[in-house]
Amino acid sequence: MPPKKSKAKDSVKDAVSELSKSKVKKPTSAGSRPGSSKSPTILTEDVISTTDIGTLIDLVNENVHTNADIIHNKYKDLAEEQMSQDHLLIQELREENERLTQRLSESSSNAEFTSPIRKKKIKQDDFEKEREHICFTLDLLELLTGIKVTNFEESPTRYTFDIKQTSSNKELFIEYLLILSKVDSSQINYVPTFLEDDGTRDSAYKANQKNLVKVLPDYLCEYLSFPFNTLAQFYGKVNKALNRK
User: Fold this and answer.
1) Helices 2-21 and 53-109 meet at what angle, rounded to 10?
2) Is the confidence at residue 29, as pLDDT, over 60?
3) Rounded to whole angstroms, how far apart are CA atoms 207 and 214?
């Protein structure tokens, strides 16, 4: 057993010797740490040869691990500080997001729109109710004039209105398209869709179609193009034809 101990001690001494050589510029102290008042132990050959193996192992461990511990502690402190800053930043962003969301909600609730049937502004909260008023107004206009817009479509080049116009006694009606160009809005096009038959028309519709052909002037059974500012006159002529006795 003694020979093994001597061999182990020699190995430790070699390690300590190598450690001391690698620190020629700044001799390493045994067990010294920042803030320690203990006098440093210089790792010389004499110290190595006269020190027992247990102490040498402690010296090796302290000199090897001291710098690593310092670096680890510094890294740990920096990481904790960064995590704390990140937490504060996340909290600030959450609070800012809540403030912006609240402002957006308040802005939306206070938004106002111009009603097509009123002279006053309509708030966002009253929009659905105003839509009902608009529908009621359009129904009233249909009762007064006999005209109803059954569909509306918009394309990049034009507006298309599906119109149904009914006689005063509700016995006769005509369906047609009015097409307004976005390029030249001075003209409007008339398309007599009541003449079309897609095979799904019932007998009542076909009977109405035959009666229309009898009472309408020939030009209302053809495609027309006329000035937009004469639209009221066009309506009057159609209304007169529908109510002809």
Assistant:
1) 50
2) no
3) 11
SS (H, E, C) the chain: CHHHHHHHHHHHHHHHHHHHHCCCCCCCCCCCCCCCCCCCCCCCHHHHHHCCHHHHHHHHHHHHHHHHHHHHHHHHHHHHHHHHHHHHHHHHHHHHHHHHHHHHHHHHHCCEEECCCCCCEEEHHHHHHHHHHHHHHHHHHHHHHCEEEEEEEECCCEEEEEEEEECCCCCCEEEEEEEEECCCCCEEEEECHHHCCCCCCCHHHHHHHHHHHHHCCHHHHCCEEEEHHHHHHHHHHHHHHHCCC
Question: CB–CB of 59/51 below 8 Å?
Answer: yes
Question: What is the model's pTM?
Answer: 0.50
Q: State residue 37's pLDDT score.
A: 46
Please give the backbone phi and psi of residue 192, each rounded to the nearest 5 degrees, phi first. Answer: -80, 85
Whether 40 contacts 27, CB under 8 Å = yes
> Which residue do the tokens 């300590």 mark?
16
CATH of span 146-243: 3.90.1150.80
Domain ranges of the chain: 51-105, 146-243
The confidence score (pLDDT) of residue 24 equals 41
| CA atoms of 34 and 79, how far apart (whole Å) | 21
pLDDT digits (tens, 9 = 90+) for 65-120: 566 677 777 777 888 888 888 788 888 888 888 888 777 776 655 666 666 656 66
